[in-house]
Predict the 3D structure of the following.
Amino acid sequence: MSLLRVRGLAIDYATKGGTLHAVSRGTLDVGAAEVVGLVGESGCGKTTLARALTGIVPRNATFMGGEIVFEGRDVLNGPPDAWRDLLWRKISFVPQSSMNALDPVYRVGAQMTEVLRLRGGMGRAEAATRSEELFAMVGLDPRRASEYPHQFSGGMRQRAAIAMALALHPALVIADEPVTALDVIVQRQVLDTLRDLQSRLGVSVLLVTHDISVVAYVCDRVVVMYAGEVIESGTTRAVLEAPRHPYTMGLTNAFPDLERAGGTLAPIAGAPPDLRAPPQGCRFAPRCPFAQARCRAETPPLTIDADGHASACWRSDEAAALAENAKDPSTWTLMSTSAA
Amino acid sequence: MDAYVHVSGLSKTFPVSRDIGQVLRGERPVVHAVRSVDFSIAPGETVGLLGESGCGKTTTGRLLLKLVEPTEGSIRIGDKVLAGLSGESLRGFRRDAQFVFQNPFDALNPRIAIGRSLAEPLINAGIPREEHAERTRVVLERVRIRGTELLERYPHEMSGGQLQRVVLARALILEPRFIVADEPVSMLDVSVRAGILNLMRELQDSLGLTAIYISHDLALVRYVARRTLVMYLGSLVEDGPTEDVIHEPLHPYTKALIAAVPLPRVTQTRDPLPLRPGTPDARKVGKGCPFVNRCPAAMAVCEIERPPLVAVAAGRRVACHLMPAAPLRAAGSLAPAAS
């Protein structure tokens, strides 16, 4: 049984321009002690989906349906207090910018002990000891606990945010772009720390990122989102090496690989749809070089094969041939001349 | 071959905040954003300037366009020595050299339509009004924007990819010969980024632009620049053909940087980085090598003497005491074999 099971999650935002369907078909699983990447481009709904798992959504957001089952309990359709009770203790969150995670006017150590005392019910002394442990665990000098967030570098702040997320032994850590603002060396060091702690503590991690390289480096499984929908998921190897959805194929092509020589990057023509009025049928069809009449009329369901590799594409039976075709940049260029 | 851009002994310091003791003693502490940097760029060449945040790469770019004044050193671009420019000669330089900004969402005035944003450089440069339409048409074609309906739109009505094309168009509309592009795709999504990068490659070739491409991302630098300069805490530590720098980095910092880049595939090395624990801090660089506190191969000499950037092979320079002058002799014998 998976630790977290999300099915058909739908979240709308009320905006000035009308209702925006930020997440329409949010379906994913996170197993015990597993690192799952949630990948997609800006505006695809990955952050909305990930944040929704904590029950904390912006004021203008509404849950429109679906289920969020954590440890066998449907928290979305259960009592709100039960969900809130899971926060920090069972589910914790590392936000996108660690500057936002830490309050600038309080010492870093004080913010840590606050979590331990208020949410963990620890006494002052116990919280102080645990706080020191946590600092050391993420590679921070415990003596710096008395400093303010601005005295920390970006990497140190991100380490502090990770330490805080791990403070009360949660089962699931949701990390929203935890390394995006960091330099490449620091990014690598923070990812190594995260992965090391994850395997030592047996915690599950849902890592939200736009960076396929980060997914490839740390994730066991990956879930790909496009225009508010989950369009592919499976083991990192299966999704990156044998993608079934043309969007995933396009995304892997557009990504430079330092070890692969030269070549031309192929952009995906066009732009993601306006989620206030998403297109009928497959939402990727207007940009897809392989789209057929059916794709523009009917929404393809997310179907899962025996290996647990899921994709939402009418042509997933031909995936191997399409993927071969997709490697040729001209497949995508031809599109761009007709659709740009 | 005469260099188009020639930079020598370039330094830039910025004052940093003082504590009360320093104020009383009348000290004015500074941070060296750029420290005795020397390089040249051939006409039509695109060079990548690679480094982490705070390494001085953006300051270098701004110095090259005379947006800030150097503390020391000189810059020559084309036939113009920047220090001496003023009045008409400065205006001429401003037409020939352009900056492509990092964040397309910030680079354009949100309250004026795209067409007006594009016309502004033309007005500033005193281009006759009757030429504006034709210039705009040509430049939109260059950046692959079709039709003119977009000229009436405002920035918030456009996607990031479209906006970055407009930013590029705005930099190109005066037909410059030299471009400084500062992380031009870092704000864009992957699927869109590739289109802008391809466009930049095409434009370099078709317009014969001399360009410097500033980025923290080696994979992107590699895509647009055949030669790469690596900066660390204000100093140039390595200079060479991009492919050589990637496959055979010579400076210990470059080695760590390349080892740290994650690859978009499952099979990749996850070995510890060749680094000693330590943090880069531009304010704490002493008289030795700026990388000494993190370098796994640091020696006594590295603490006390800053290694100069010296040629170690054909087209390759490195600032490291581990790469002594000895290979310099080999450089001469390598040159014919390499060409």
Summary: Chain A touches chain B at residues 41-42, 153, 155, 183-185, 187-189, 191-192, 210-214, 216-217, 236-237, 240-241, 250-259, 264-269, 271, 336, 340 (CB under 8 Å). The first strand of chain A starts at residue 4 and ends at 15.
